[in-house]
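Suppose a classmate hands you a notebook page containing two proteins, each written out with its sequence and a corresponding row of structure tokens. How would you begin to make sense of it? This section walks through that situation. The first entry is reproduced here exactly as it would appear on such a page.
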Amino acid sequence: MNVDAGVFARDSDRLGRAIQIGVASGNVISVSFPETAPADADADHPLLDRAFAYLDGDEDHFDDVPVALTVPTDHRRVLDAVRKLPYGETVDFRRVVRMAGMDPEDDDDVATARTALRENPVPLFVPDHRVEDASGATPDEVSRRLRGVERD
């Protein structure tokens, strides 16, 4: 098994769907939550083990997980700000905009931040579920369950 590259997925009873991660050169390049794990995905990866331990209540910030973000610079600023949000804390979308060095009163900045969250390629490791009032890449029902995990 090569954990440095591939697609890895495992079904989660806690989420009611699967967690799927894409890895290239040891960096996470994608995270998604399909209804079920694809048959051709490997279920064995240390990051999946960590994700499932997190779902079982282990506090994990995932801030040491290497991610490769191939996004525009202004989107990266938003995602970097979100990555710094502490475990168990939810913040207002406007605060994230400010944390990214943008103006929450500027329509273009707000639109850029919303797009960055919606197109977040690595939810869970860039925890968009911790941002209120914004639809991130994490499906709503998964976001609610992840926030519940962090409150328990």
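The notebook's second entry, a different protein, reads as follows.
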Amino acid sequence: MNKVVHKAFLLWDWEKEAAWLNEMSRQGWQLKRVGWCSYEFEQGEPGRWQYQLEMLQKNDPDYIAFLEDTGIQVVGKLFSWVYLRRENDGTPFELFSDTDSILRHMDRVLTVCYVIGGVNLFFGLTDLAGGFPHTLLNLGLGALICLGALPLARRRHKLAQKRKMQE
């Protein structure tokens, strides 16, 4: 039996998305395919799989092969995001082994947020002069994306400061 769930997560909420996928797994729904705000699940053994997400900097077949060699499977890809799973062995499924790797991941997410937000702000400001109806949409979306990413930017800053103090 399969089911499709339509749900939206923000770019900077990958941990919430992974937690939701893991909760679905505990309920016996295993991710089969991912699309734009759409998740297809198949019914299976509750809790069999653990899920994680990672924003890749580029399509790196060597990195994907490395993950697969460690028992991690790619369930799906959406833009730069890769949806990963591994069999639940009772230990946490962590992709980032050190502070530097999580900081690099946060940098990738923040870069995408600020580029998308900045482009929307640019088009919104450009539209102001021409009076186009998209102006408010672009300005609002750009501001929401840039402001929405601020908590992640603060978390990243605190983590970087903590790392500096430990050196």
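A careful reader of the second entry would note: The helical segments are 14-26, 61-69, 99-130, 135-148, 150-166.
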